[in-house]
Every structure is written in C-alpha cells, then in structure tokens.
Specification:
Blueprint lengths: L2 H19 L1 H9 L4 H22 L8 H25 L5 H7 L2 H13 L7 H18 L11 H24 L4 H22 L11 H29 L1 H5 L1 H16 L6 H20 L12
Helix pairs in contact: 1-10, 1-12, 2-10, 3-4, 3-9, 3-10, 4-8, 4-9, 5-7, 6-8, 7-13, 9-10, 12-13
C-alpha cells in the first residue's frame, strides 16, 4: 500500500469517526420528540436513497444473485438496522457518556473475533495493551462518574452492548466474506436495512406514529441519514477490506474523542485538561493496536 493510499485511508477513518462521533448527540435531540423506531426508519430511508443515487450516478447496479442479496441482508441488519434501533432505544435511558463506554465493547469483541476467524489478524500483546489503554482513555474522557450508573438501567445498557456486538460481528463478516464493490455493498445493505425497519414500523401499528416532531428533531434525522448513515456507509465499506477488521474497529474508541472535539469547535463546549489527557491516551492506544496488527492484504472486491 502506497503512502498516498495510507494517508487517504487515515483521513477517511478520521472523517468516519467524526460522523459517528456526532451521531450520539443527534440521537439525543431526536428521541426528545420522536419515537426511536421512527428515527431509525427516517435515517435509514434517507441514507438508502442517497447511496442508491450515488450508485446509479456511478454507473453501477445491484446484483441479481441471491447469495449476494444474502450478504446485503446480513450487512444491513447487523451493521445498521439492529444496532441503530438498540442504540436509539438505549439512549432513552442511558447517558451518552456511559453509552460511549459501553460501545467500547465493539472493538474488543472485534479484535477477539477477528483473531479467531481471520488468519491475517492475530491477537498480539501489543494489540491487547492498546485495547486496555483505549478503554482507560474513554473512561478518562467521559469521567469515572459515568460508571456510577452502570447497572442502573440494565435493559437500556444491555441494548447498547448488543448493538456493539452487532457492529463487531458485521465488521468481521464484511472482511471475511464480502467480495463485492464497496458502493454496491453500501447501497444494497442500506436498502435492505431501510426496507426491514419500515416493515417493523408499519406492523407496530398506528399508535407508534403519535409523535410531536420539531424542526430540531427533524434536522437531527436528516443529519443522521445523510452523514451518519449514507456517507458513513460509503466510507465504511471502502475501508474494511483495505485496513482490516482490527484496525477498523478502533474507530469506536475515537468516536467519543471526535464527539468532544466537535462539541468544542462547533458547539462552544469546554475542552478540559481531562479531555486532552484522554485524547493523548486514546491516540497512543490506537497507535499500539494499528502498529501491532498485521496489515491487511487489501484485496479489491471482485465482481460477480
């Protein structure tokens, strides 16, 4: 992999972390006046339409192969629909700070699972050390007090942990089994995800649509659909086969850091010494994991 390609991958990784880092705050704005399922349905529909338009613009199309559609379905459900619903429901009762810590389960589970099923991603001492430092960095970032409510709302917290496990399984699945073009996979998976959540919304009954939308909540859904779903999926499916599951998973540690930086630069939130210390610890931790993981072969997706 050339230095230019590596630089592009790092830049895209940071952009993706920024998009996902801002999503927790947007979800909080949305659930204040919208049903969680409606939020997920809205963001998935917007994201699916956006990516499909990009697919058509690029002159590509979805496959007609049943096995390929199975991969669309698995990636769409594990990587979007199921975790989106779980996180959105969980954030009704779980603070975003604790949610950030609980999402740290994702990279840990990804590294362990990848080391088990992927021959080119080994669990080294350097990687394990990096994971420990990363968890410490997230705890420092959000403050140890966030752990005080651990266990208070078991269902909400379990929901977020399950979402993290879905992300882990999906990242390893995409690296291990998916050999389709990134744009096609992004489009197919989001379309399946959007269709499935719209079906759930429909069959839940009309009473679930009794909502009080505001301009702020609608804006949050649009942002989540365009950036945290549409653009994020395009970047995600591009990066996973190029940098590997272990390296990709470390983005979950960078997400709360990017969230804090976004709050500082755009929302006039305070950036304390604790935030800077956490940033240093997490950057060091991610460096350990990235340098300790064997580089991915970077195979291009083959057409079928």
């Amino acid at each position: 992999m050339s230095n230019k390609s590596s630089l592009i991958n790092v830049l895209l990784w940071v952009i993706l972390a920024s998009m996902w880092g801002s999503s927790f705050a947007m979800i909080k704005l949305g659930v204040a006046s919208l049903d969680p399922v409606v939020i997920v349905a809205g963001r998935m529909l917007i994201g699916a339409v956006l990516i499909f338009c990009v697919l058509i613009w690029a002159g590509q199309r979805l496959s007609s192969n049943a096995k390929v559609w199975l991969s669309y379905t698995i990636a769409g459900l594990l990587g979007s629909t199921i975790p989106f619903v779980m996180i959105t429901y969980g954030e009704q009762s779980v603070d975003s700070a604790l949610a950030s810590i609980l999402m740290g389960v994702a990279p840990v589970a990804t590294v362990v699972l990848a080391a088990t099923v992927l021959p080119d991603e080994k669990l080294t001492k350097r990687v394990v050390t990096g994971l420990v430092f990363a968890v410490m960095g997230v705890v420092i970032l959000v403050g140890p007090s966030a752990l005080h409510s651990l266990g208070d709302d078991f269902i909400g917290q379990l929901s977020i942990i399950c979402a993290a496990l879905c992300y882990a399984a999906n990242t390893v699945y995409v690296k291990c089994c998916v050999r389709r073009p990134a744009l096609e996979m992004a489009s197919g998976s989001t379309l399946v995800g959007a269709f499935s959540i719209l079906l759930v919304t429909f069959f839940m009954g009309k009473h679930e649509f009794i909502i009080e939308p505001t301009m702020m909540s609608i804006g949050a859904v649009v942002y989540l659909g365009v950036f945290s779903t549409g653009c994020a999926n395009l970047i995600y499916f591009y990066l996973v086969p190029r940098i590997g599951a272990t390296r990709m998973s470390q983005i979950n540690f960078a997400v709360p850091v990017m969230g804090s930086l976004i709050g500082f630069f755009f929302l006039n939130e305070m950036l304390t010494l604790r935030h800077l210390l956490a940033l240093a610890v997490i950057v060091f931790a991610v460096y350990l994991v990235l340098s300790g993981a064997k580089p991915s072969a970077g195979k291009a997706h083959a057409s079928q």
